[in-house]
Amino acid sequence: MSVYAIFVRERLRDPKVIEAYDAKAGPSLAGHPVKVLAAYGGQETLEGAPIQGAVILEFPTMQAAKAWYDGPAYRDARQLRFQGADYRVFFVQGV
Fold it and tell me: What is the DSSP string of 66-93?
């Protein structure tokens, strides 16, 4: 069953750190079975606080999603994300 990794940026704190994160996050996907479905495209908030951006990644399984998220390349990148912005990140299984 497909699993979606959803990243919602709620507040940017340091644009330069997020630039460094972006430079590492994209390449961290190499070698993983992932499809980028959305990445900071146009958006419209219908309920709740407005967001600054969103990314949706599709993985074939929860195990594959966690292997990428907890892998050394993304683990290194996400430290920059933690420093540069406030995000809500979660995995959700498809139907």
Answer: HHHHTSHHHHHHHHHHHHHEEEEEEEEE
What is the CB neighbour count within 10 angstroms for residue 26?
A: 12
Residue 44 per-residue DSSP state:
-
CA dihedral 34, 37, 40, 41 (to 10 degrees): 160
Task: Report the alpha-carbon distance of residue 89 to residue 55 in Å, rounded.
Answer: 9
| Residue-wise pLDDT tens digits, 29-69 | 999 999 999 999 999 999 999 999 999 999 999 999 999 99
Longest dimension (CA), the chain: 38
Question: Which tokens in the block code for residue 79?
Answer: 């430290």
Predicted TM-score (pTM) of the model is 0.94
Average pLDDT over residues 68-83: 98
Structure tokens belonging to residue 34: 């992932």
